[in-house]
TrEMBL record, chain B:
Keywords: Glycosyltransferase, Membrane, Transferase, Transmembrane, Transmembrane helix. GO terms for molecular function: glycosyltransferase activity. InterPro entries: Nucleotide-diphossugar_trans. The chain crosses the membrane at residues 20-46, 370-394, 400-423. Belongs to the glycosyltransferase 2 family. The keyword Metal-binding does not apply. This is Glycosyltransferase. Pfam families: Glyco_tranf_2_3. It comes from Brachybacterium phenoliresistens. CDD domains: CESA_like. SUPFAM superfamilies: Nucleotide-diphospho-sugar transferases. The keyword Hydrolase does not apply.
């Protein structure tokens, strides 16, 4: 039997190629591993040197000018670690120590250097810069961070969304909501967290979030509903009830039902009862949980109605008949 | 090139005929499997990179304080686990998740599993009920439902007669009252943030995502303290080491790749998060099948596609569940044999989906791939090997050619494995030592010199047993009217 | 001027807590995890107070406190938490936590609360 194309030459080429690839891959793995271990080790050593210095600087009263000078002039890899430690302090501490830390970071040329890095070609560098700017929360950087939400890399836009919690306001809330419009793959948790922080801190942001309940984009409506629920303002209950009843998108109904668990009022009972009839399991579950969160006398008739229906998904949550007054 | 050198007797004619008829299909099969592996490697790489970038953004220590709107039930079926049950339940209760409950189902243990739980958690009778309704059936008789006296401890214990893990899991499902359900083994170990990570896809897309699966690794050789893995390491026995490498390949490439292709075919029962409403729709686990987790995944695909519901199954690479792998040949043999038997049963049960355009990617790409490259793989491997050896022995084939072919095949097998290692190395946040990497590379080579062939034999045994027993069970299947839904 | 234990897996916070309490005159031992904390407590029975972070890997802060109380420990516990949600605070108090401080916290307030707990005899 002859296979004319099956020459020894071909076989040898394929054989050698395959084995060369095997060796290359093993080499690449070992190199990648070695590089990672080396970076981690050196970072750990530098951190161990920087940390006590930073801690002393933050807590000392009055500040030792020599220590401040040392930290201010730190450069290179050590300087990078000093920056990281100072930023970590910003996350954990309030009060005088914090102001001192911000002042030192500004002295170290921070905002300028970070703003430069925020224009880097590499996404991870941009993301790291935006993250740090968010922690510094200097008013001058609000625009930069806001614009970063439109970045083409999801890592950067996500980090920017989170950083905007430090710049609460209508424009920032809008920027975060616009992320949802663009369909970027930003984790829901990041978006919601940022909006909650902004809504808590700023009236205008809260107003913008309320406006978002009528946005043409379903994801925006859903996020706003969820955020309003977390901000526990019962004034929003009627709006949320309307959303649950009227919104064409199941995802929005789900968010509204979930929000009503926290801010539901008696007036929402009819909408919630309808919600327990939804074709979507999760919507039924959230609606029932919202009913269960209301005072028992208010929700009793609705709960009895749900019990009558015998929905296997909802039954494990229903209270025992003895707990339902007047049924 | 003249491939066959024959000496002109009838034996040679026979051999020539056999080789002729098997050569081309074998070559095609070989190329097809190489292409499939190549695609999975690429997709696996993309998926793990994306997952890892996301993990960097999602600083979970910070976002653990954020609202997570989906509550979770952890269902643990336990049979004779008195030694580990208290610690296991404690570590699950301590998992980092804002709103979760734990349901332990005592599957008719003959040791004092129930007593241990009763003592440790001060159990009192509960008024929760095991309600099997709709499509969900629970066969094991329920002897009682208990709960922890302390209302701050969200633990429910269901005591049933012995009816097998699948049925016990269904009993646990029937009593669950949260949005999501995770099925968990008492002897597995979960990372502290595993649940939060595994639940993220549900938060991003609560109505489409129906199920997510996480990574599974061998816990042999790792240091476990208070129900958590504090130090990773390779196990000492070679049998376990070979399995570590297998799992790496199966998950980093297999699951990650298929998930990225939108055709995740199998979410392991050891670490799968499901939406409770979907589980009730498909009736939980099929207690008659051995591969119950595979069966559940297929049922979900089937249900959603029949109803044309937009849906997703997602593999999340970061959260890890650590499970013990067999260290004795006998146990490993039983396991592999059982797995393949389960594979066959489920593929056969859902054969209506095969090459059926109604089932989209699952029917047209995923299932044919599983039939060819999972089910029939051991057959092709062993037969192919036997034929080449036969041909060399008879002198019917140029031995150099044959060895070259074997060398290429071996090389590709090893290449796929080391690529999986590279992908893992680039993504993982953990520490593997250079020594461990070396051992893994060695395993990648050594597994082709007997281990793969041995597991292939065991898998064929399982398949054969299933085929022999299937005449009876096929009858049962038609009686229960499986085909309608 | 007591012997105090600080438990936190975040080394920056741990360093700050330790330094602040040392400058207030206490002797401070540190631990990076719940398990390590138990070892330290067993080795140093003279420790009167522990500042414990809520979120620890493995054995959580609340777990640690619960375990200590079950052993009959009279250790004072001040818990640092990023969670201000009701459920966790209630859970912590019922487990035996004496006082809470939410992050981000003021180092001065930390020292004051530690002093107050130690004085409460």
């Amino acid at each position: 039997m002859t296979l004319p194309w099956l020459t020894p030459h071909l076989l040898v080429t394929v054989l050698v190629t395959v084995w060369a690839l095997v060796l290359l891959t093993i080499l690449a793995t070992l190199l990648s591993h070695a590089a990672r271990v080396r970076t981690e080790r050196s970072q750990r050593a530098l951190d161990e040197a920087a940390r006590p210095l930073v801690a002393r600087f933050v807590l000392d009263d009055p500040v030792d000018p020599g220590l401040r000078a040392t930290l201010r002039d730190a450069r290179g890899a050590f300087g990078d670690r000093v920056d990281e430690r100072l930023l970590a302090v910003l996350e954990g501490i309030t009060g005088e120590g914090r102001e001192r830390t911000v002042a030192l970071l500004v002295d170290r040329g921070h905002p300028a250097r970070l703003r430069r890095r925020a224009r880097s070609r590499r996404a991870l560098v941009r993301a790291a810069a935006i993250r740090r700017l968010g922690r510094l929360a200097l008013p001058a950087d609000a625009d930069l961070v806001r614009r970063a939400t439109a970045d083409r890399a999801p890592v950067v836009s996500s980090v920017a969304a989170r950083a905007l919690a430090a710049y609460p306001g209508a424009a920032s809330a809008q920027a975060v909501l616009d992320l949802l419009r663009a369909g970027a793959s930003v984790p829901q948790l990041v978006v919601v967290n940022s909006l909650i922080g902004q809504g808590e801190a700023d009236e205008d942001a809260l107003a913008r979030i309320r406006q978002g309940l009528e946005d043409p984009e379903a994801r925006v409506r859903a996020a706003c509903a969820q955020v309003l629920g977390e901000l526990t303002s019962t004034a929003d209950a009627p709006l949320l009830g309307e959303l649950l009843r009227r919104d064409p998108t199941a995802g929005v109904q789900l968010a509204a039902a979930g929000a009503l668990r926290r801010v539901g009022r008696a007036g929402a009972v009819p909408a919630l009862l309808e919600g327990t009839r939804s074709a979507w399991g999760p919507v039924r579950l959230q609606a029932l949980q919202a009913l269960l969160a209301l005072p028992r006398e208010v929700a009793a008739p609705a709960l009895a109605e749900v019990a009558r229906r015998g929905d296997p998904l909802l039954e494990p949550l229903l209270p025992r008949p003895a707990d339902l007054p007047g049924s | 090139m003249d491939v066959l050198e024959l000496t002109g007797t009838w034996v040679d004619d026979a051999v020539r005929a056999v080789l002729l008829w098997t050569a081309i299909p074998s070559l095609l099969y070989f190329l097809a499997i190489a292409v499939q592996q190549g695609v999975l490697v690429l997709m696996g790489w993309v998926d793990v990179r994306a997952s890892s970038a996301r993990r960097d953004v999602l600083d979970l220590a910070e976002t653990a304080t954020a609202p997570v709107s989906m509550s979770l039930t952890v269902v643990m079926a336990a049979y004779n686990e008195s030694a580990v049950i208290a610690e296991s339940v404690r570590s699950v209760l301590a998992l980092d998740y804002p709103d979760h409950e734990v349901v332990v189902v005592n599957d008719g243990s003959t040791d004092d599993t129930l007593e241990v739980l009763r003592r440790t958690y001060d159990l009192v009778p509960s008024d929760r009920e095991v309600r099997a309704a709709g499509n969900l059936q629970v066969r094991g008789a329920v002897r009682g439902v208990l709960e922890a006296r302390d209302p701050a401890v969200p633990l429910v214990v269901v005591d049933t007669e012995n009816s097998g893990r699948a049925d016990a899991s269904n009993a646990g499902l029937a009593v669950s009252a949260k949005d999501l359900v995770v099925f968990f083994d008492a002897d597995s170990v979960l990372d502290a943030d595993a649940l939060l990570l595994a639940v993220q896809p549900f938060l991003d897309d609560p109505l489409r995502v129906v199920c997510t699966g996480g990574n599974i690794r061998a816990v042999n050789g790792c240091r476990v303290v208070a129900g958590r893995v504090v130090e990773e390491g390779m196990p000492r026995p070679w049998l376990a080491r070979l399995q570590v490498v297998e799992y790496l390949r199966a998950f980093s490439l297999g699951r990650a790749g298929w998930s990225r292709l939108g055709a995740l075919m199998l979410v392991s029962g050891a670490f799968g998060v499901y939406r409770r409403d979907m589980l009730l729709e498909v009736g939980g686990f099929d207690a008659d099948t051995i591969g119950e987790d595979f069966e559940l995944t297929m049922s979900l695909h089937r249900w959603c596609r029949r109803r044309r519901r937009a849906y997703r199954l997602v593999f999340v690479a970061e959260p890890t569940c650590w499970t013990e792998v067999p260290e004795s040949r006998a146990v490993l043999q039983r396991q592999r044999s059982r797995w393949h038997r389960g594979l066959w049963e489920v593929l056969w049960k859902h054969r209506g989906m095969l090459l059926n355009p109604r089932y989209g990617r699952i029917g047209m790409v995923g299932l044919p791939s599983f039939w060819l490259f999972e089910l029939m793989a051991p057959l092709f491997e062993l037969v192919g090997l036997a034929l080449i050896l036969l041909a060399i022995a008879v002198g019917a084939i140029d031995p150099v050619l044959a060895l070259a072919a074997l060398g290429i095949s071996l090389g590709i097998g090893i290449l796929v494995t080391v690529l999986a290692m590279l992908i893992e190395e680039g993504a993982r946040r953990r520490r593997t030592t250079v020594a461990d990497l070396g051992v893994m590379v060695l395993c990648a080579v050594v597994e082709n010199l007997g281990y793969r062939q041995l597991t292939a034999v065991w898998r064929l045994q399982g398949w054969w047993q299933a085929l022999r027993g299937s005449t009876a069970s096929w009858g049962e299947m038609t009686r229960t009217g499986f085909a309608t839904d | 001027m007591a012997h105090v234990l600080a438990v936190d897996d975040d080394p920056d916070i741990l360093e700050l807590v330790a330094l602040k309490l040392r400058s207030a005159g206490h002797t401070v031992t540190t631990a990076g995890s719940g398990e390590r904390a138990r070892d330290v407590l067993a080795a140093h029975p003279d420790i009167e107070l522990a500042v414990v972070d809520h979120m620890l890997p493995g054995m959580t802060g609340v777990d640690l406190v619960r375990a200590l109380r079950a052993e009959g420990s009279a250790l004072r516990v001040l818990m640092l938490t990023a969670r201000s949600q009701e459920r966790d605070l209630v859970g912590g108090f019922s487990a035996g936590v004496d006082d809470y401080l939410t992050k981000p916290f003021s180092p001065r307030e930390l020292a004051v609360r530690v002093r107050a707990l130690l004085d409460r005899r």
